[in-house]
Amino acid sequence: MSHLLPVDQAFLERARARQLRLTKPPGSLGRLEEAGVRLAAIQRSEKPRLGPGAVVVAAADHGVTAEGVSAYPAEVTPQMVQNFLAGGAAVNQIARVAGAEVYVLDVGVRGPEFPAHERLIPARVRSGTGNLVREPAMRPAEALAALQAGENAARRAVSEGATLLAAGDMGIGNTTAAAALTAALLGLLAAEVTGRGTGVDDAAYARKVQVVERALERARGELGDLERADPLEVAAQLGGLEIVAAAGVFLAGAAAGLPVVADGFPVTAGALLAARLEPNLSGYLFAGHRSLEPGHTRQLEALGLEPLLDLNLRLGEGTGAVLAFPVLRAAAAVLGGMATFDEAGVSEG
Ligand SMILES: Cc1cc2ncn([C@H]3O[C@H](COP(=O)(O)O)[C@@H](O)[C@H]3O)c2cc1C
Ligand SMILES: O=C(O)c1cccnc1
Q: What's the Enzyme Commission number for this chain (predicted)?
């Protein structure tokens, strides 16, 4: 883990001053303006520019699926990995129109290894997590390895030309792990952060809340106060591998000086973990969208982020993050490319 420098405060202020001189009423471009200012601070330039993007879709399986907490069977995880590689998933189509490369990081899918593929990054730490109700999801050393797998994937995306970076997730059962980790890191109750994920019915939802409660109780037995415990140890207790890998994507992307974009509930659990490990991440991190998962709003509040989009998505894969790439490019283009009142000879109010 590298130490992350804070974004440049002086550029933040210079960019704010420039926003005020551009040919528009001050504030009239709303959150695009603040996004542009933050991009300026990240890039240390009053005229930020964004080119190609990338999303690292981290995939892994979850032992907790044995508790009946998802509306879909666990075999969907490897099937969707194949679908990502074949270009048939939602994130592939959205990434294509949003100017983003899709990398698939296998950090812990169960089953046979996937055949080699240009965009597949094979880095299995273990074959799915343990069932978090009964046992730790993984060992702390495995959590560290998952974090490093995410960091390495981000470095590859940057070396291949990414100028902004998102993380995505694929892992049946991962909204249960995300709920447990979010409740643990933020000191919230299971019922406050547990949603319906892929669309579980009332009986499965009730079971899911109980599973999260029991997992939190078990983890507390191991680590004591979960809000104060080592965040990576909390993540090892509650998982999942792809959530921890997403944290690594954010940390390495920010360390490389890129804006990094969070997606929905599982990926933003990774962002929370990353921000706990490295508080300076906050300057580099954007929220692509607001997911319908109720716990996502709690995560965004804790991170102090307003989402760029709010489209009633509840899919994951990085879809909501990648959708926000054009918005961020527009924010950069406005600040970098608009004329000032002086330059354009437009009268000020
Ligand atoms: C076909 C399909 C494609 C998906 N793409 C993302 N997810 C999303 O749903 C899963 C989490 O929900 P739960 O906790 O309820 O299992 C994750 O794999 C997540 O990425 C999908 C789910 C399905 C079924
Ligand atoms: O918020 C998300 O990204 C999400 C919601 C449901 C299932 N998977 C992901």
A: 2.4.2.21
Active site residues: 317
CB atoms within 10 A of CB 197: 25
| Residues 6 or more apart whose Cβ sits within 8 Å of residue 6 | 280, 283
**CA–CA separation, 209 and 75 (whole Å):** 23
Q: What is the reported pLDDT for 3?
A: 84
**Mutation pick for ligand 1 pocket among 198, 292, 296 (CB with most ligand atoms within 8 Å):** 198
Q: Do 58 and 123 fall within a single domain?
A: yes
Looking at the chain, the whole-number percentage of residues with pLDDT higher than 90 is 99
* Assembly ipTM: 0.99
When pLDDT is averaged across residues 318-339 and rounded to a whole number, the result is: 98
> Which domain CATH number covers 94?
3.40.50.10210
Cβ of 198 below 6 Å from ligand 2: yes
What confidence tens digit (pLDDT) does each residue in 297-327 have?
Answer: 999 999 999 999 999 999 999 999 999 999 9
* Per-residue tokens: 229: 């415990």
Helix axis angle, 265-277 to 294-303, nearest 10°: 20
Q: Is 52 exposed, middle or buried (0-12, 13-18, 19+ CB in 10 A)?
A: middle
Rounded distance, CA 283 to CA 32, Å? Answer: 16
Share of the chain above pLDDT 70, in %: 99
Threshold 0.90, pTM exceeds: yes
Ligand 1 site residues (CB inside 6 A) read 70-72, 76, 80, 169-176, 197-198, 315-317
CA-nearest residue for atom 21, ligand 1, is 315
The total of structural domains in the chain comes to 2
Beta-bridge partners for 103? 56
pLDDT in tens, 190-200: 999 999 999 99
23 and 65 assigned to the same domain: no
Domain of 102 in residue numbering reads as 53-327
**Domain shared by 43 and 115, yes or no:** no
